[in-house]
């Protein structure tokens, strides 16, 4: 490892009182959304860290957030057993879809017309993957998804839409990855390359690839359509989140252990690091310190010139890369 | 039987009848009393090597014999055969009869080998044994030939052309054990097995065997392919120890002890696999219970007020008795000679003392009195050139504990002793370690965070010089290189893995580094490399072992899932003489050139390999990306449709959509006091 990412001073987003569970940029990258266990969903200007606003309403920890391609609507999922739709600009709650158990993952499809979200296996209810078509207001009014897919075996822990809204790629607690058709709900493809829980799945900006982050201390790159396993990135800590650079052959990973398992490791100030791997060589080439606890979520800015990380410490840090980052090359 | 015809008249049948009956009865009794050859012989012992005496001294001899042999039971009969009639000398062997065969056996067990005087050592046997040995068949049956088990070259690992040392690694919390060859670039797997051991492993002192633990006993493995050389059955074995010569292995199991058959500790002959002797064991708290002399000729253990020294290969007590040393607290063999050092605490008016005893003569070659002693620890220098006794004392009139080091110079006449006093806080802890192959020692003393590391040199002129003291060290352990000169001060576990590499030739700090939460430090046998590791047994995350050069330059970080233990394979003693080593050192420059060239070649080969690997990985990746992008391109129309004709493929695909905004950036904060 011969490059230590020397970055400009990061922008610190302080707006949450508990650990961050997910962060997301909108398609153009000018906004960044953060949700946390403190029931709060915030949106910020990514360029200077100024907070634009808060989406108020949830009464439980938030697990997920997504924004549609046009930055019109925002979707959030929570442990208060609801998935809510918001107007991005005004913050007004547009719809509330009640569920029987916590909403773990949610997202808009490519067109922005269909939303999916998964519910946890708890309180006697099993895990379900739900699809709503926003063009049919009746579905929202009646809280009737047009398709509900049960997942009896292993619950869904993270999911993203495929490139053209035809299927959802879901990661499960047992390390499996399944493609669920958005039309029929059947499993189109499945693979099992990880042997422990998938903590996060993210797509590349062109949606051709997905990257998984797993408790088995590795992250893997797959083709979104074929689910072919392309690359593996190994660490010695459980990986909570991973993202693919939009412009370089790089991936970033963040991890650590759950708060309960952390004992003495975390007493070292700022020890938790985001790790950068070369996507083709599978070699780690850089690390960025700064978080006071495990990193729960990472995301690249759509222009690839910066990235953000949300941590167990409740902070979101936006890092802009310095020129060295773009010039750095491993000998080949 | 006899018919007493004469008794009585022909016409008095009753008499005859009576006679017959009584004769029969009498005969029956007589028959029963008839001495059978077997009767009483089981209780008879034969004693050989008895002094031959004339009738005038016979009484005295009998008294002496009686005194010795009546200990085992009542002597009911005795026979002292003489030469040429009762006036001659006794033959030199005697017969003694006991009341019961068990007593005879006791006599054999205890009196056999009894040394009466310089010329007479009794040999005692049960009489029936003579019969047994006499009736051995004259026909000699050739014992069955055992096929020769060829394990190959047991020193195979020493022949590695690149002189790589081996080490064992246990990981996956004990599920996997692997043997690696240590290459500076990357470890090379030599052997890897699942469930090779059930708990941990141990190398024998010269590196020939790898011992693994199992419920039923231990197994020894060796040779090029690590074949199983030997198995020792000892149910529930938990601890083992090897003799330094690798001839014997000692196993301990808490399960196996019975009063009649001591089985807690068993000593085995490694080559034959035979059980040599079993011992009782009260507590395994201070393993090894038996301490071996450096040459494997003796082993000893300490029990209450007793030091028992045994010799090999007989496994019997040296001189047939243990040493009574009242109050003995600790003992230790010199690693260079057959000398034992032990100490006893104060006893009423007699001060505490340290004694050096030569074996097998048991001559006390040095005794040193110590006053107001609280505790002592014995530290031998690796070659046995020096002994350090760390003495904790409470001087008269004070409350605190003061530490002294009493340095015994073993190679000098009459073993002079020099004392080094540790000044400073009396309540602080100390650590001590000798330099192997040298005459320096290092001491850690003080209370965290003010721990000092002091280096001393034991000079030939009778002085012990303090060379250097480093203060405020994060260290709780001292690790010398096995070759001497270099060492590491380590702050393990609670001190977060701070490491300081020191060159003691001029006492410079070469490097101060860290392996966070390191729990163990292991030097390789040559002193070129050091391994620090975080064991899963002590810390549940970041389990890995790191390889450093002796100067503290980090070479490798090896993460291993639930890494538990790393042990270097020891090397046997060098075959080079001191003189040939001197010659090689003189020509070192010549050898350096050859090795440097070799290193450069392998470096560039590794770089080339890495570069080639990367190149091919990139090619594969590019190929994949091209195909994926091709498909992406083909889906463009579908994408446009899904987004109502808006092209979002690039960030700048829709510049007409862009708005101009003015944003504020926080630059600086300045507090300007307003005017009075």
TrEMBL record, chain A:
WD repeats lie at residues 13-54, 55-96, 288-318. The keyword Cytoplasm applies. InterPro entries: eIF3i, WD40/YVTN_repeat-like_dom_sf, WD40_repeat_CS, WD40_repeat_dom_sf, WD40_rpt. Pfam families: EIF3I. It comes from the Eukaryota. GO terms for cellular component: eukaryotic 43S preinitiation complex; eukaryotic 48S preinitiation complex; eukaryotic translation initiation factor 3 complex, eIF3m. SUPFAM superfamilies: WD40 repeat-like (SSF50978). Keywords: Cytoplasm, Initiation factor, Protein biosynthesis, Repeat, WD repeat. It is found in: Cytoplasm. GO terms for molecular function: RNA binding; translation initiation factor activity. GO terms for biological process: formation of cytoplasmic translation initiation complex; liver development; sprouting angiogenesis. HAMAP family: eIF3i. Belongs to the eIF-3 subunit I family. Belongs to the WD repeat STRAP family. Component of the eukaryotic translation initiation factor 3 (eIF-3) complex, which is composed of 13 subunits: EIF3A, EIF3B, EIF3C, EIF3D, EIF3E, EIF3F, EIF3G, EIF3H, EIF3I, EIF3J, EIF3K, EIF3L and EIF3M. Component of the eukaryotic translation initiation factor 3 (eIF-3) complex, which is involved in protein synthesis of a specialized repertoire of mRNAs and, together with other initiation factors, stimulates binding of mRNA and methionyl-tRNAi to the 40S ribosome. The eIF-3 complex specifically targets and initiates translation of a subset of mRNAs involved in cell proliferation. This is Eukaryotic translation initiation factor 3 subunit I. The gene is eif3i.
UniProtKB/TrEMBL annotation, chain B:
It is found in: Cytoplasm. GO terms for biological process: formation of cytoplasmic translation initiation complex. It comes from the Eukaryota. Residues 43-129 form the RRM domain. Keywords: Cytoplasm, Initiation factor, Protein biosynthesis, RNA-binding, WD repeat. GO terms for molecular function: RNA binding; translation initiation factor activity; translation initiation factor binding. The keyword RNA-binding applies. Its main location: cytoplasm. InterPro entries: 6-blade_b-propeller_TolB-like, EIF3B, eIF3B_RRM, Nucleotide-bd_a/b_plait_sf, RBD_domain_sf, RRM_dom, TIF_beta_prop-like, WD40/YVTN_repeat-like_dom_sf. Gene3D superfamilies: 3.30.70.330, TolB, C-terminal domain (2.120.10.30), YVTN repeat-like/Quinoprotein amine dehydrogenase (2.130.10.10). GO terms for cellular component: eukaryotic 43S preinitiation complex; eukaryotic 48S preinitiation complex; eukaryotic translation initiation factor 3 complex. Belongs to the eIF-3 subunit B family. RNA-binding component of the eukaryotic translation initiation factor 3 (eIF-3) complex, which is involved in protein synthesis of a specialized repertoire of mRNAs and, together with other initiation factors, stimulates binding of mRNA and methionyl-tRNAi to the 40S ribosome. The eIF-3 complex specifically targets and initiates translation of a subset of mRNAs involved in cell proliferation. Component of the eukaryotic translation initiation factor 3 (eIF-3) complex, which is involved in protein synthesis and, together with other initiation factors, stimulates binding of mRNA and methionyl-tRNAi to the 40S ribosome. Component of the eukaryotic translation initiation factor 3 (eIF-3) complex, which is composed of 13 subunits: EIF3A, EIF3B, EIF3C, EIF3D, EIF3E, EIF3F, EIF3G, EIF3H, EIF3I, EIF3J, EIF3K, EIF3L and EIF3M. This is Eukaryotic translation initiation factor 3 subunit B.
């Amino acid at each position: 490892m011969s490059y230590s990412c020397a970055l400009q001073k990061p922008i610190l987003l302080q707006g949450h009182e508990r650990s961050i569970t997910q962060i997301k940029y909108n398609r153009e990258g000018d906004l960044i959304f953060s949700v946390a266990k403190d029931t709060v969903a915030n949106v910020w200007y990514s360029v200077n860290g100024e907070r634009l606003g808060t989406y108020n309403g949830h009464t439980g920890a938030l697990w997920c957030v997504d924004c549609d391609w046009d930055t019109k609507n925002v979707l959030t999922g929570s442990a208060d057993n609801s998935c809510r739709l918001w107007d991005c600009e005004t913050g007004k709650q547009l719809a509330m879809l009640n569920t029987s158990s916590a909403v773990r993952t949610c997202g808009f499809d490519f067109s922005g017309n269909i939303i999916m979200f998964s519910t946890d296996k708890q309180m006697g209810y099993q895990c379900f993957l739900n699809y709503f078509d926003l063009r049919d207001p009746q579905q929202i009014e009646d809280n009737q998804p047009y398709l509900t897919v049960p997942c009896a075996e292993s619950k869904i822990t993270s999911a993203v839409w495929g490139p053209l809204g035809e299927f959802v790629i879901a990661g499960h607690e047992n390390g499996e990855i399944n493609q669920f058709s958005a039309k029929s709900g059947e499993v189109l493809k499945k693979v099992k390359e990880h042997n422990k829980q998938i903590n996060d799945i993210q797509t590349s900006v062109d949606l051709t690839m997905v990257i998984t982050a797993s408790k088995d201390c590795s992250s893997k790159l797959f083709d979104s359509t074929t689910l072919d396993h392309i690359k593996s990135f190994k660490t010695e800590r459980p990986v909570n989140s991973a993202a693919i650079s939009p412009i370089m052959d790089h991936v970033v990973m963040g991890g650590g252990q759950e708060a309960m398992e952390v004992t003495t490791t975390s007493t070292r100030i700022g020890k938790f690091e985001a790790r950068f791997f070369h996507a083709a060589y599978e070699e780690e080439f850089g690390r960025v310190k700064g978080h006071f606890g495990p990193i729960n979520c990472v995301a690249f800015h759509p222009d690839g010139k910066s990235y953000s990380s949300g941590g167990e410490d409740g902070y979101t840090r936006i890092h802009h890369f310095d020129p060295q980052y773009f010039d750095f090359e491993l000998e080949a | 039987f006899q018919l007493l015809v004469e008794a009585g008249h022909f016409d008095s049948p009753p008499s005859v009848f009576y006679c017959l009956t009584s004769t029969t009865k009498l005969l029956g009794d007589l028959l029963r009393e008839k001495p059978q050859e077997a009767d009483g012989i089981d209780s008879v012992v034969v004693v050989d090597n008895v002094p031959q005496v004339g009738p005038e001294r016979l009484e005295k001899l009998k008294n002496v014999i009686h005194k010795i042999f009546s200990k085992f039971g009542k002597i009911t009969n005795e026979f002292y055969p003489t030469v040429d009639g009762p006036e001659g000398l006794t033959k030199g062997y005697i017969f003694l009869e006991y009341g019961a065969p068990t007593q005879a056996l006791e006599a054999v067990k205890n009196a056999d080998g009894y040394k009466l005087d310089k010329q007479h050592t009794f040999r005692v046997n049960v009489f029936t044994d003579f019969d047994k040995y006499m009736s051995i068949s004259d026909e000699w049956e050739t014992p069955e030939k055992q096929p020769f088990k060829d394990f190959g070259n047991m020193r195979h690992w020493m022949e590695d052309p690149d002189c790589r040392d081996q080490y064992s690694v246990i990981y996956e919390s004990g599920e996997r054990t692997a043997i690696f060859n240590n290459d500076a670039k990357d470890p090379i797997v030599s052997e890897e097995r699942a469930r090779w051991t059930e708990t941990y492993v141990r190398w024998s002192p010269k590196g020939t065997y790898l011992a693994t633990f199992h419920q039923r006993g231990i197994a020894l493995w060796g040779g090029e392919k690590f074949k199983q050389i030997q198995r020792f059955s000892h149910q529930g074995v938990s601890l083992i120890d090897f003799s330094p010569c690798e001839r014997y292995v000692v196993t301990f199991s808490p399960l196996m002890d019975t009063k009649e058959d001591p089985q807690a500790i068993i000593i085995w002959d490694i080559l034959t696999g035979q059980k040599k002797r079993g011992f009782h064991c009260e507590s395994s708290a201070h393993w090894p219970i038996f301490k071996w002399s450096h040459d494997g000729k003796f082993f000893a253990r300490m029990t209450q007020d007793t030091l028992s020294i045994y010799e090999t290969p007989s496994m019997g007590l040296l001189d047939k008795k243990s040493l009574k040393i009242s109050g003995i607290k600790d003992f230790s063999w010199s690693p260079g000679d057959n000398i034992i050092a032990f100490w006893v605490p104060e006893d009423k008016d007699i001060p505490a003392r340290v004694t050096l005893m030569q074996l097998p003569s048991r001559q006390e070659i040095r005794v040193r009195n110590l006053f107001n002693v609280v505790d002592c620890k014995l530290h031998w220098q690796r070659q046995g050139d020096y002994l350090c006794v760390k003495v904790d004392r409470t001087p008269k009139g004070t409350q605190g504990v003061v530490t002294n080091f009493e340095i015994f110079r073993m190679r000098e006449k009459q073993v002079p002793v020099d004392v080094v006093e540790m000044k400073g806080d009396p309540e602080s802890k100390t650590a001590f370690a000798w330099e192997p192959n040298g005459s320096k020692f290092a001491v850690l003393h003080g209370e965290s965070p003010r721990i000092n590391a002091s280096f001393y040199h034991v000079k030939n002129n009778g002085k012990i010089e303090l060379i250097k003291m480093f203060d405020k060290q994060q260290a709780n352990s001292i690790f010398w290189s096995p070759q001497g000169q270099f060492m590491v001060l380590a702050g393990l576990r609670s001190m977060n893995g701070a490491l300081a590499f020191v060159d003691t030739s001029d006492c410079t700090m070469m490097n101060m580094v860290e392996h966070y939460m390191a729990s163990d430090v292991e030097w390789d046998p040559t002193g070129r490399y050091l391994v620090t590791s975080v064991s899963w047994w002590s810390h549940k995350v970041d389990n890995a072992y790191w390889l450093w050069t002796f100067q503290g330059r980090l070479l490798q970080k090896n993460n291993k899932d639930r890494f538990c233990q790393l042990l270097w394979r020891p090397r046997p003693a060098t075959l080079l003489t001191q003189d040939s080593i001197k010659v090689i050192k003189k020509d070192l420059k010549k050898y350096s050139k050859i090795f440097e060239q070799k290193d450069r070649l392998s470096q560039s080969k590794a770089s080339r390999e890495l570069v080639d690997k990367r190149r091919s990985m990139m090619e594969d990746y590019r190929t994949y990306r091209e195909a994926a992008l091709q498909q992406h391109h083909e889906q463009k129309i579908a994408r446009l449709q899904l987004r109502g004709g808006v092209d979002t493929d690039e960030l700048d695909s829709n510049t007409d959509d862009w708005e101009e905004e003015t944003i504020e950036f926080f630059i600086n904060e300045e507090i300007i006091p307003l005017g009075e």
